[in-house]
Every structure is written in structure tokens, then in C-alpha cells.
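Database export, one record per block. Field names are fixed; values are copied verbatim from the stored entry.
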Amino acid sequence: MTIKLKKCTIEDVHTLREISYDTFNETFKDQNSPENMKSYLEKAFNVEQVETELSHRSSHFYLVYVHEEVAGYLKINTGDAQSEKMGDESLEIERIYIKRSFQKHGLGKYLLNKALEMATEQHLKKIWLGVWEKNENAIAFYKEMGFVETGAHSFYMGDEEQTDLIMSKQIL
């Protein structure tokens, strides 16, 4: 399997919007109402919102390709781009999403390891993420990768308040 990672630029906005919308929808549509999904997807993944996120100096997106096909993406944040105040020595993995057809092929681990490499290169001390408390597969994966639960925060899916667990890993 040929895997390639590409850092996104503003020219990738439409590809990023499409993969973001598709993977989020695939992952969560069965556990949420159609109305809440529609509301969230339209707000979070419209072109203007994706452009804004791509333009933030402390946020970085990476597309992962398998045999020249977009299979998923990674979004990381540092500094003031983090969704929680974790300090300047932390890196947030805001999103790791893989198309269902590419899951169970090691791409999530590949992207997580890339984020860890980036944090290490920047001499950061902690990497963290939020994961929906009902996403048992993701929680198990992050625990396997050395993350521990360190808190929680609210996440709104449309008008429904949900809980994301905050999981962190210290970088040696």
C-alpha cells in the first residue's frame, strides 16, 4: 500500500471540505438525528469555514492518500488554535478521519504518529485530543496508543450537547 501525506494549502479547500464532510457523516450519521447532522455539517464544513481554519497560522491540515486517492486527513492545532487552553507546550489533534473504505489499514496510527513526530520536532511536552464518549473504537485506539483520559468538554451536534473525553499523552 502506497501512502502519501500532503500538507494542505488554500488550494486544497474543496478537497478538504469534501473529505471532512464525507468522513464526519460516515462516522456519526447513525448515532445522531438527521437534523442535527445536517446543521453541524453545514456549519462546520462549508467552504468559508474550511478556508478560515486553513488560514489560521496555528492550525495545519494534512491529506493522506492511498494509491493517489484521498483516504482521510489530519488536523492539528497549537497555541491559540487549540479548542481548549492547554498552553504553548501542547499540540491538539483536532481531527483524524479516515474514509470507511480505508479503515483498519493502519492509517489512523500513521496519522497519529505523524502528529507525535511534529510535536516532538517542535519540542512540545503534551499531545491531546477530544473524542466523543460514545466512540468506543476510537477511545480504545487512543488508549492503545498511550493516551489517558484527563478531562471532558462539551461538543454541540446541532442543538444536542454531547460530551467529548479529553485524552492526553506526555511526550518524553
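Remark 1: The domain at 3-126 is CATH 3.40.630.30 (Aminopeptidase).
Remark 2: The chain is about 35% helix and 35% strand.
End of record.
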